[in-house]
Design goal:
The structure is a homodimer.
Chain A: H1 17-33, H2 40-47, H3 51-57, H4 61-85, H5 89-106, H6 110-116, H7 118-126, H8 128-142, H9 148-164, H10 175-189, H11 196-206
Chain B binds a DNA duplex through α3.
GO molecular function (chains A, B): DNA-binding transcription factor activity; transcription cis-regulatory region binding
Keywords (chains A, B): DNA-binding, Transcription, Transcription regulation
Pfam family, one (chains A, B): TetR_N
DNA sequence: GTCTATACCACGATAGAC
DNA sequence: GTCTATCGTGGTATAGAC
């Protein structure tokens, strides 16, 4: 505990190649079946190895889930830090939202699973590093104010972004269309003026789907 | 099949008192642990009976999950029908959104679980009555148009509403505050003018949280 | 008709020996 | 890395008590 770094940096956690392979396979399966619906056997089969081989890389199933969560949070961590580096809280929020949209699109389907799986929710509540990071994320999302409306906006935004990207109604949207619409909508939700770039993006996107 | 009613009416499915007790207990547990994370044993324990007693009411676990989904959809069914009864599609959408907000608040936490659990998602894809109903719901939500923007709006709204109500940042909101904020936000997302009622609601709500 | 007692088999995570 | 074992628990099933 004496060597514990003051700031939790998920990005700094080292993984061997074998561990990374386990995490990749596990994430794919968990995204499809949920944590409880994914067994070590399934992970092993997907990797073409035995259960014992998986068990060698991570002592328990929970460790795998923790590692997956850490890896996913590491990506968001970069976004939060980029936002915190901005001087102005309003500008910070914009940067963060932009990055969150990027990531939600880039990892379409994955983000929401991690956000809604009951097992992962419990894990996040139990592991302090996760808790601390989430609070940091919320802080950046809230900016300076913390009233009813601000909190509602932050809640609505952070949930809507990660969920909308995997909605069946827009499953056929390409990344560019999605990003344009999401950017436009988040700005509207916050009552911010649309940027010229947004309008161009959303106009272009209109031709992207029949 | 000859006796199958033309319109699927989930509301018309009869349940005995014993079955209802099983569904109540199961829903609570599933909302907390997910479908895969909930065993017949847990359901039985929660009811203070044995596994066999549960098994007597529903032959399989899947039947329980189907029944739960039917029961929850029956509630939405009323909302969809009320919307369809409106002449104007725009007005229909407003009515539906209003009811969806009501239900998301009333059954806070339950709606989103059913919407995101991998097992239930698979079930919905496999059972045609569920599929048909969902399409009906989307149709009412889309109104007349079905372009990129309209679909995006429908997706964003239907996901955001059910998810936001259980977001930790606003877990302390009371029902009235939630409803006011949700109504206001959905109107803003659709670029509709705010109603006097909304403003009053959101003003009142401001005093509901410190 | 509803619940209990009990059993069955497959599979879950875990573990140590190879 | 694999093989094999352990041990609990999953869902399913039947027979019989109230």
């Amino acid at each position: 505990m004496t060597s514990a770094p003051s700031g939790t940096r998920f990005s700094a956690i080292p993984r061997t190649a074998a561990q990374t392979r386990v995490l990749d396979a596990a994430l794919r399966l968990i995204a499809e079946h949920g944590v409880s619906g994914t067994s070590l056997q399934m992970i092993a089969d997907a990797m073409g190895v035995t259960k014992a081989a998986v068990y060698r890389q991570f002592k328990t199933k929970e460790e795998i889930v923790v590692a997956i969560t850490e890896r996913e949070m590491a990506r968001l961590e970069d976004a939060v830090e980029a936002a915190e580096a901005e001087g102005h809280p309003l500008r910070a929020r914009e940067v963060l939202l932009d990055r969150m949209i990027d990531q939600a699109i880039e990892r379409r389907g994955v983000v929401s699973v991690l956000q809604f799986d009951p097992v992962i929710i419990r894990l996040q509540a139990e592991h302090e590093p996760f808790q601390r990071f989430i609070e940091r994320l919320y802080a950046a999302l809230l900016g300076t104010e913390a009233g009813v409306e601000a909190r509602f906006h932050a809640a609505m935004l952070s949930s809507a972004i990660s969920v909308a990207v995997m909605h069946p109604l827009i499953a056929d949207f390409d990344a560019a269309t999605l990003r344009a619409q999401l950017t436009k909508m988040t700005r509207r939700m916050l009552d911010l003026p649309e940027t010229a770039q947004d309008s161009a993006g959303s106009a272009k996107s209109r031709s992207a789907a029949p």
